[in-house]
Structure formats: C-alpha cells, structure tokens
Input
Amino acid sequence: MTLSLRQVLLALLLLIFLGPCEARRKQNTKAANNTKPALLQLSDHLLTHYKKSVRPVTDWRKPTTVSIDVMIYAILSVDEKNQVLTTYIWYRQFWTDEFLKWNPADFDNITQLSIPIDYIWVPDILINEFVDVGKSPNIPYVYVRHQGQVQNYKPIQVVTACSLDIYNFPFDVQNCSLTFTSWLHTIRDINITLWRLPEKVKLDKSVFMNQGEWELLYVLTQFREFSVESSESFAEMKFYVVIRRRPLFYTVNLLLPSIFLMVMDIVGFYLPPDSGERVSFKITLLLGYSVFLIIVSDTLPATAIGTPLIGVYFVVCMALLVISLTETILIVRLVHRQELQPPVPAWLRHLVLDRAAVLLCLQDQTYQSPSALQRPTVPSHPTENNICSATINHCNRMEGLQDLEKTTSERGNPSPPPQENSLVVHGLLQELATIRHFLEKQDECRNIARDWLRVGSVLDALLFRIYLLAVLAYSITLGTLWSIWQYA
Output
C-alpha cells in the first residue's frame, strides 16, 4: 500500500515538472513550422501521404478524363524504304488529380506548384505507332494547380510507322497518324479528350519549322472508341499529320536533265539518214542516259511494295532511246549503198512513195512519178554521149588514116586485105558495147540507190513523227498528272 502511494506521488511530480517542458517543445515545433517556406509546407502537405500507385479519384466509378494536345514542331526524316516517319512534337496533357488540392489562403496564396513527375500518378497514354525510342529530352516536373489540375508539357521525338505512298514522288502527299491511347486502362478508368478545338489544331503552324524538304499542310483529329476481341472499350485520339514534299530539288536534278536528253534525241533525227553520225550520236545519248540513271538511283525512294511513277518515267525514256536507236539503225541499213542492192519492190514503192509521201506532204522532195522513174531505152547519160562522140571521132580518124594508107599503097605498096579492117572495126564495136553496158549498169545501180534513199527518207520522216507524237503524249500525260498532284 505504501509503495502504491509512492508511485502515485512520483507520477504527479513528473507531470508537474515535465508538463511545461512538453509545452515548450510543441511551441518550438510550431515556431519552426512557421519559419519553413510556404512551398515546402505545401509540398509536405501534398506528398506526405500521397500514393502514386492509385488512380487519384475519390469515387472509383468516376473516370479520369485526360485532355491532350499536339503541336508539330519539325519533320525530321521520312524513310520510304522502312516506312518510318520521324517527327518532333510538343505534347501536352491535362487531367485532374483529386488528391492534389489545397486552399491557397493556407499556404501564402500559392495557386500552382511544380513537383517531380515521379512522385505523382501519371496516365499510361502511349502512341500506338511507336517503333523506336526517340532522343527526347527528359522533363522531370509537372505543374499542379490548387484545384487539382495537373499540366504535363514535354517535347517528344516521335519515331512512328507510317504507310507511305511514293507513287506520286516527288509530288507526293503523305498522311501519317499518331494514335494516343491508354495501354491498360479502359474507357471506364481513363477517357481521352482534345484540349483545343479541332479547327485550331488543324491550322496551327505557329511552331512548325518549315525550311526542310517537307511542308505541313494540316493536322486532323478524330476520337474513337474501340474494343479488342469483344472485350471492354478503350478510348483513343488520332492526330493525322498531312505533309507534302517540296519538289523543286527533284525537278531540277532529276526531271530537267532527263528532258534535255530526250530533246537532244529528237533533234538527232535531223541528221541525214544516210550518215553514220546519227548512229554514233544516239549511242552516245543512250550511254549518257545510262550514266544519269546510275547517278540518280540513290536519290529515288525505294520500297518493296511499289515503284514511284518517276522510276517508270525513266524506264520508258530509256526504252524510247533504244527504240530511236533501233529505228536509226534500220534506216541507215536501208539507205546504205551497195553494188548488188535489189530494186525497190513495186508494193513498197506504192505504199511509201505513193501513199506515205502524200500523207506526210513529202512528194515534192522525195517522190517522182512512175513515168519519170522509167529509164529510157537510149542511154542519155552525159558521160556515155561524150564517150560515143570520142569513139566516132576516133573512127573518123581511123578512116582518114586508112585513106592515107590507101593512097600510099596505090603509090607503091600493096593494100592490106579487107578482113583485117573488119576485125579492127568489130573489136572497137565490142569495146563500145562493153563500155555502154557498164555505164548502163552503173546508172541502174545509182537509180536503185536513189530509190532506196527516197524510201528511207519517207520512212524516216514517218517514224520520226510517230516517235515525236509518242514522246509528246507521254510527256503531256505525266506533266498533267504531276500538276494535278502538286496543286491538289
């Protein structure tokens, strides 16, 4: 009993002596808290009991609405072969965290606070088209307002897969999508909306750096609710980035040199068809075009699923050059002079010199009437007349010599027998017949070669006009298509 009274007395004494000490300690702690900066007080108030692993809503049935926004800053690269688009965007998120609210009057009227992003809950919104991690800067902080509104701003280098259509290269327009969605949470937990109006997002080019190869046309937005294998629905927001290639570089370095070479090929038709220079000229053009294609092969985009129209254009131009060279070889072979060249067939003369020449308005230069083409029975060649005149003069001189010899023989020598005189005249006549036959043969060969030259000239003009029409039709078609694509 005595011990119990002693214990009670000791406890009372301790309370009497320790009470003022505890009071002083609490006062000191309160004074220390009053001297702590308001930002630290607010940070401690918000994060001391915060759980970032839980979605920040008081009623779990209420979804967290995340508003997003995208601003295109630059188009870094477009890889047609791998179907990859690399862009640099400014990405903004906005949502309400019900666990991060405070009264500004209690914390020196602070209305917003920047806190580390690793300390709070962040929605798991990703881009579905991601194929590689870009070199994006790390932004470790977010802004939190006193109503619980969280603003997450960050620049992102986006490397995404995109179905690129290069058929219209270099006048192509590409449409690539950026799909933002929650990877895990359904629409009952996380819903996605657009921060700004779609019209403002579409025409916003305020931060776009447009000095590169690609020009930003507009950005379209679309909200969609989808489900996977009949499971619960997910919310997604699509941003369609529509860009257009600037074609000036490719026009100057690809199209103009090819056009110049084709023009030179057309000009080469004005060389004479019987001249061998045309063949060497066209071979040189074909070789130069082959070297040109080797040089530009690295510039053309390449994919496994399609070929750009400009590649088809180069192949067709090469084929046209080969056709032009083949036509030149055939014409040169046709008009080439040969000693044993056969005459022009009647059907070919009728088709080419009678019909085609009239159709091409070339009858005045290359065509002669059949009556003019008939050869006279009596040779009228100037060389042959000169030879005949010289032969007659020679015969007259021979007769004068015979008269002189006859007079001399009458004076003292016996006259030669008549058979010798007839043999000399017969030999001269044979020689004259041989010379005449040779001249007629030469004149016939010359007329045949002239006929073939007329035929070759008409065919060359006909094939040249067909070739020119084909080149013009092909060029006009491609030019119209490219103009429509460029200004579409």
User: Anything to note?
Assistant: The two ends are 107 Å apart (CA to CA). The first helix runs from residue 2 to 35.
